[in-house]
Design a protein that fits this description.
15% of the residues lie in helices and 33% in strands. It is globular. The relative contact order is 0.21. The strands form 2 sheets. Strands 1-2-3-8-5-6 form a 6-stranded mixed β-sheet. It has a two-stranded antiparallel sheet with strand order 4-7. The chain starts with a helix and ends in a 19-residue tail after the last helix. The chain has one domain: Sandwich (Jelly Rolls). By secondary structure, it is of the alpha+beta class.
């Protein structure tokens, strides 16, 4: 019995599979250019359940002006965490008009949920940690170029 268990683990290892392995990073999502004053971000669009769930998991880097925008089909309260996410991020919770309601910094691999205070969030935008602060973007700022919420699934 013991040898059988080791044999199964060996096969999994040879196949590159592990129990509780981090998911493969999403690199092929559609993109949008978001504008924040005179600044811009190239953002991958996570607009369905699967892409929203995976988010930036397993990404080992995020370019200076890269982001991920999560699009929800209806306004709602949201909550994000950093499961399987090794890079420090900042997140903006945003309303339909592009108004930033709140900003939060997130620690790598921290599985503590960060809930929105608002129940009207329709976008969440993740950027390299400190990007918002370094570019003078605060709660109350407006983001342009957001994808249509009608595409969210």
């Amino acid at each position: 019995m013991k040898n059988t268990a080791f044999a199964i683990l060996g096969v999994l290892a040879l196949c590159g599979l592990t129990l509780n392995a981090a998911p493969k990073a999403q690199l092929d999502l559609p993109k949008a250019t978001l504008t924040l004053g005179t600044n811009s971000l190239t953002a991958q669009i996570a607009d369905d359940d699967t892409s929203r769930e995976l988010g930036l998991m397993s990404r080992t880097n995020l370019g200076t002006d890269e982001a991920m925008v999560f699009v929800f089909p209806q306004p709602r309260p949201v909550s994000f965490w950093m499961k399987d996410t090794p890079v420090p991020l900042s997140i903006a919770y945003v309303g339909r008009s592009g108004l930033i309601y709140e900003l939060h910094d997130m620690k790598p691999f921290d599985e503590t949920p960060i809930p929105s205070a608002s129940s009207a969030v329709i976008y969440a935008i993740e950027v390299p940690q400190g990007w918002f602060l370094n570019h003078g973007v605060f709660a109350g700022s407006t983001i342009g170029g957001l994808p249509s919420t009608s595409i969210a699934k």
